[in-house]
Amino acid sequence: MATVLELSQADKNLVSFMKAIRASGLEDELRAIGPFTLLAPVNLAFGKLSQADLFETLLKQDGSRLRAILSYHIIKGKKMQRDFRTGQKVQTLGGHELQVTTRDGDIYINNARILAKDRQGSNGVVHSIDCINLPPELKPA
Prior knowledge:
- By secondary structure, the protein is of the alpha+beta class.
- It has helices at 4-9, 15-24, 27-30, 43-47, 54-61, 63-71, and strands spanning 36-41, 74-76, 89-91, 97-103, 106-109, 112-113, 119-121, 124-129.
- The chain has a single domain (4-136), classed as FAS1 domain, CATH 2.30.180.
- Helices cover 30% and strands 24% of the residues.
- The protein starts with a helix and ends in a 12-residue tail after the last strand.
């Protein structure tokens, strides 16, 4: 069975996410036993960043900031769609809590809506999301 990293690499909608994972140095961590839940922003989500060139800048020069952003999209443990409930808080790899809400049958993690869900790997699960959530310390003032 493929790992969460291999599942993400095989998804053409997650090319930008995988580019960021490689640049951040998180690949080895995501090959580990886990389990992990990846909240992987789709390619279009990277275009929604407030500054048009922020993503390219992060890829080129700011590994720690990029790692902090990506760690905010990795939940400790395996969370399937059925495991998410409104009001629930889930712990990220970076030590933050994310808020879960449900609206009209959709699940939101902070403000990101889960699109494709429950793609299981040998070390966790991958859910695609429609935007990038920024950790509180990296949000623009």
